[in-house]
Design brief:
three-stranded antiparallel β-sheet
Length: 325
């Protein structure tokens, strides 16, 4: 048998001179005589048989007779339990009524006896007098004297149980009015949100009856910081000023009442490298004669500055602190 070429895809045979399959275009393989294989039969899909018709048979549901019987039995048991409980409660109430003391009889005897004693005092006195005279002339027998004594004792006992002793009217006392706690003496601070100059802040505090605040102790410092917390202020005018010498060698800081800022110096409440007397960062070297309490670098400190802060900071961040004695 001569060699030939065969398509690896569809299995068709071609002469050795052909390169590609005319049917599917796949490259042909050279087949030697000993490698010859019978051509592959085309694959034929098996014919599908129509599905067999099946009939579904459903079992009949059992009747729920057992459930109904159980429910009826449970209802009957509950009714029986309620009847037994009701009978027990009625019997218990009757037992309590028969075993309780005759308080009603005692209460009925007491008002009767007290009414008779109040309406007929003369008759009782006459009867007692007659009994005494009879006792002197004719001694009573034991059979008649015993019931009378028992009756009197029982009446006295009942009267003692129901009679309420009269007391004097209660004393009435006036409730004393509490006096108000005395207010602590000393200064108080009040903060104002107002983007104004230092001179305007000074005038407004004085018009309100105070002055721009001085801070001269730890107590003053803590009170001022507490008042400013929650206001949103960051730049607050105080009642102090600075003065720089003509040669620029010394800077003097003081409060408006003339006292020095020794507490601020000793407590190191100045911002670093302050007071400076003028603005070294500006070419004009603007003078900074006013003392300011500002919140920079996450803490409060003092600085000397000028009214130029109105141009640099938000208005709602600027204000002043008044002091009232």
């Amino acid at each position: 048998m001569n060699p030939y070429k065969q398509c690896p895809n569809c299995g068709r045979q071609f002469p050795v001179t052909d390169i590609f399959c005319d049917n599917c275009g796949c490259q042909l393989d050279l087949i030697a005589p000993e490698q010859a294989q019978p051509p592959q039969q085309p694959f034929v899909l098996p014919t599908q048989q129509p599905p067999a018709q099946t009939t579904t048979v459903y079992a009949e549901k059992p009747k729920k007779t057992g459930t109904l019987i159980g429910l009826l039995v449970a209802i009957l048991l509950i009714l029986a339990a309620m009847i037994v409980l009701g009978f027990f409660l009625v019997n218990r109430l009757q037992t309590d009524d028969t075993s309780s003391p005759n308080n009603a009889e005692l209460a009925a005897v007491a008002p009767t006896q007290t009414t008779e004693a109040a309406t007929e005092p003369d008759a009782d006195a006459a009867a007692d007098q007659a009994d005494l005279s009879n006792a002197e002339t004719e001694p009573p027998t034991a059979e008649t004297a015993a019931p009378e004594i028992e009756t009197k004792i029982s009446v006295v006992t009942v009267i003692e149980q129901v009679t309420v002793p009269q007391t004097d009217s209660p004393s009435v006392y006036a409730v004393p009015t509490p006096e108000p706690d005395p207010q602590p003496a000393g200064k108080t601070y009040q903060a104002f949100v107002d983007a104004c100059t230092w001179a305007d802040a000074k005038q407004k505090c004085e018009a309100a009856g105070g002055h721009l605040a001085y801070i001269t102790s730890d107590e003053d410092w803590n009170q001022a910081i507490s008042v400013l917390s929650g206001t949103g202020l960051r730049y607050v005018w105080l009642g102090g000023s600075t003065y720089i010498s003509n040669d620029g060698s010394t800077i003097t800081a003081s409060w408006l009442n003339g006292s020095n800022l020794s507490y601020i110096d000793n407590a190191r409440h100045w911002y670093p490298n302050e007071p400076s007397g003028w603005d070294n960062s500006s070419p004009e070297h603007t003078m900074e004669p006013y003392i300011l309490l500002w919140y920079v670098d996450d803490y409060w400190s003092l600085n000397d500055t000028s009214n130029d802060i109105l141009k640099y900071y938000k208005p709602e961040r600027i204000g002043y602190l008044c002091e009232f004695d």
